[in-house]
Design goal:
Two copies of one chain form a homodimer. Chain A has 15 helices and eleven strands. The first copy, chain A, is of the alpha/beta class. Chain A has a single domain, classed as Alpha-Beta Barrel (TIM Barrel). In chain A, strands 1-4-5-8-9-10-11 form a seven-stranded parallel beta sheet. In chain A, strands 2-3 form a two-stranded antiparallel sheet. A two-stranded antiparallel ribbon of chain A has the order 6-7. The longest helix of chain A has 25 residues. Chain A is globular and about 60 Å long. The mean pLDDT of chain A is 96. Chains A and B meet through helix 9, helix 11 and helix 14 of A and helix 9, helix 11 and helix 14 of B.
């Protein structure tokens, strides 16, 4: 593979010195881009786009043609894992993701297979290889998966949920069944992320979108435990470099503290915690990635510039910061706003780093 | 008016000694009760139910006939305030609340009237008087309003929102217009709550449902500031008793600290912060109300009993705790589950209080 020309992301995630703060954006390959919508239409449905390595590569690269991002992120979905475990993922118009079969009780968890990753998710590792080839070493490629807890919510609810009726009914009434589901998902997810790393992913991120709907004790038992098992089982060095691991619980707040003790390299932070406070909470044990309010991109260019500066000021001096939004970009955003954001990070961030 | 027979709630909110922990439940008059659904059907639409003092009184009292709650809460809606300001509230099936006119820019804010409360919201104070009469001093009546920020989100979005596109566009691009809107809403809301107090509300609560979607600096400027103005302007002693003020920002986390410094008497806490941690964060300056995960009511009776005990254990010894859910009860809950919860609070809580 080509030598990596821009390793700012990998260095920042390992808290090594950099000349400026690297930037990428959650959901950077997504619906806000007209070229994404065109490729998606060409593919047919969402999963066909994920399954086609050339088209998945195309949408992964699209934002890099427009913006000076310092990383690419694999185009895929967190629900490929339960699909590989036989639940039958489909997307119904207006309703989001659905499963043909859902997990209801302990017996269903026991019957769930631990699938062979190459057999069932080879389309993802194919996409990783294709994207790595196409990137030609310009920027690193981030692989990802959902956290066991977040993926479990979809498996037990049968799709998206508002009140988490079924999964909370299960975890409060039969916590051992929930433990078993999280453990099984952690195993499959670890294998899946390791396969992505072997195929060429240079950093990996675990998305725990729904961890914050749990009370603190339940968070430790059902969300953090799954991420801890993944951190413990991941390949941390590959192809001559460290492979940084990023955990992201949306709305983590003070839970950033226990997250930082898992042995991960970095934490994603949403916009509801200042990065200065997040550095305090985590005792600078890990790098931080974030955290501009994605809804700031609805505002004026000047407001966006001011918002970017607030985020960079809040982290302050020193290595260990990767600029990002605090959550995925909203689909209605005007693409020109993203350019304003990325350019401001480039212009304003060098002051926080010592000249190499 | 009749003398108050059960003042546990008022005493606990003022951090005075009690014999057991009082309990009530957000949305206790609501769709989970078949008798509520029947009265709602009789009234026609939701606002007709709010506007009819007898029917609003009926649904307020319904949960007290079933459960040993220690408080009644006025049946109304946080959006009566912008309706009184001329925005034209209506409820469309499946879409939730909507406004005929929305606030888009500074000029719209300037034009917004500060209405006379008795002229425009007399139906609410009527309901308060009717309910106080019907309660015959059995338990205290809680009045409430939405926080200026939370109400503003609906006024600027024109209804419910997912990403807060318009209000965040406004506050980031023209923060002074957002300041003006919050200030005007704080004035109207203060007048409105004072009118409820004069009509007989014995405690008041401000619901800041959407404060946690703001970054910390914006939270202080646009959410906390409005609640601070309300706390500063409220009648704090009426009819021979203190009138406790409760503030509730869902997902407040560490923001409980600055909330506790407003001079309010108590804070609502959702289930994502342990009450032990909340006591630490707030330095025991205020009483705490909460915080069982409402989704625990989907679980088994034994799991509910264990959950109630966890909440009471977490607060621990001493006065200053009001048991509640961490958010409103979900409409699908089996009413018998609420009985299990309330009975467990009664049985288990005396151990945390010194015998009077």
């Amino acid at each position: 593979m080509s030598e990596l020309k821009n390793d700012l992301l990998l260095r920042a995630l390992m808290r090594q010195p950099v000349s400026r703060t690297p930037a990428w954006m959650m959901r950077q390959a997504g619906r806000y881009l007209p070229e994404y919508r065109a490729t998606r239409a060409e593919a047919g449905d969402f999963m066909s786009l994920c399954r086609n390595a050339d088209l998945a590569c195309e949408v992964t690269l699209q934002p890099l043609r427009r913006y000076a991002f310092d990383a690419a992120i694999l185009f895929s979905d967190i629900l490929t894992v339960p699909d590989a475990m036989g639940l039958g993922l489909y997307f119904s118009a207006g309703e989001g993701p659905r499963f043909e079969r859902r997990i209801e009780r302990a017996a269903d968890v026991e019957k769930l297979p631990v699938p062979d990753v190459e057999d069932t998710l080879g389309y993802v590792t194919n996409a990783v290889r294709t994207i790595r080839g196409a990137l030609e070493g310009s920027v690193p490629l981030i692989g990802f998966a959902g956290s066991p807890w977040t993926v479990a919510t979809y498996m037990v609810e049968g799709g998206s949920s508002k009140n988490y009726e079924n999964i909370k009914g299960l975890l409060y009434s039969d916590p051992k069944a929930a433990d078993a589901l999280i453990a099984k998902l952690a195993t499959v997810t670890t294998n899946y992320l390791n396969a992505q790393i072997r195929a060429g992913a240079q950093a990996v991120m675990v998305f725990d979108t729904w961890g914050s709907v749990l009370e603190p004790e339940a968070y430790r038992r059902f969300s953090l435990s799954g991420m801890q098992a993944i951190v413990d089982g991941l390949i941390r060095h590959h192809d001559g470099r460290d492979v940084p691991v990023v955990l992201f619980t949306k709305g983590a707040g003070t839970r950033l503290n226990i997250m930082s003790e898992t042995g991960c390299d970095a934490l994603g932070v949403d916009w509801t915690t200042d990065l200065a406070e997040a550095r305090e909470i985590t005792g600078d044990r890990v790098a931080l990635q974030g955290n501009m309010d994605p809804s700031l991109l609805y505002a004026s260019d000047d407001a966006i510039r001011a918002g970017v500066k607030r985020v960079l000021d809040s982290y302050g001096d020193g290595p260990g910061h990767v600029f990002n939004l605090g959550h995925g970009i909203h689909p209605e955003i005007d693409p020109s706003k993203v350019g304003v954001m990325v350019d401001t990070v480039r212009e304003y961030s060098p002051r926080f780093h010592s000249p190499g």
